[in-house]
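Please, structure for the following, as tokens.
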Amino acid sequence: MTTILIASYLEPEYVAQIRAAFPDITVIDRPDLLGAPRFIADHTAPVKRTPEQEAEWRSLLAQADILFDFDHTHRDDLPDLAPRLRWIQATSAGIGKFVERMGYAERTNWRFTTASGVHARPLAEWAIFAMLYFAKDYPYLAREKAARHWERYTTEELSGKTLSIIGLGKIGRETARLAKAFDMRVIGSRRDPTQSVAHVDALYPPDDLRPLLKDVDYLVLATPHTPETEGLIGAAQIALLPDHAVVINIARGAVIDQPALTLALQTGRLRGAALDVFAVEPLPADDPLWALPNVIISPHSASTAPSENARITALFIENIRRFLADEPLLNLLDVQKQY
């Protein structure tokens, strides 16, 4: 008998969907042993257990063949506590670096599947929001409202502006699709630029970023965090951006040199930035980014939407079917490439 253990909070209706789809599988859902969600689709809620509850949780880990999400209360010793475990369905797309840090690939024969695609729409919408924020000069409107002052002004359009997307995975492609609704010019990078991508006007290889940085209005970073992309945008690359450019990071904080970005924003070398991810999270209270009026700060929440758990559950159900049928799993993590 295959046993699934729900390792982060999932609404009862979605647990019921899993059970209904696979009545012969044991699905263990113990929300009383998990952290209470602080918001919809909270998969990292703090957990407090009594010694008795902790012992019970460990006994459930020992029974599990499949985990829905990582057990963040036992990151280091999970391989020891879950000897039967064969597969973890993650609730995040960017798990490659975490799996590497934990050494799971070396210590186990587990398979890992990501939530790639689940967060593409909310992240793409957030990128569009950030572009409109600067194009329509929302800071001006906020200042005028605070001053109770009425003065007509001129805004920009996104139409005809150039959007550069580094990372044309599901998130990058969805961003390109939405940008085309605003008649933007979209350019991007992919390993084989001879293969066209829908809604992208021009493609360039990733080994030369200059065409993706010069003469752009908006730069969206949507690439996974891998050894290849760590520090991808440094001071030299930021220097190639025009003064009117806006940087939008929905990738990972390590992809860009944050001190170099901060300096460019402080000195007016860049128009602005919209950041959902940072080098250190939570962003320290004394970080200079907090004080910059030309920076949007989001607490790594641009991907979180009310539809998230419904989408992850649908993905999980399909992957359970594939797992039981010994078919290839969707979104299987390549532990070498880390995505």
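The radius of gyration is 22 Å. The chain has a mean pLDDT of 97.
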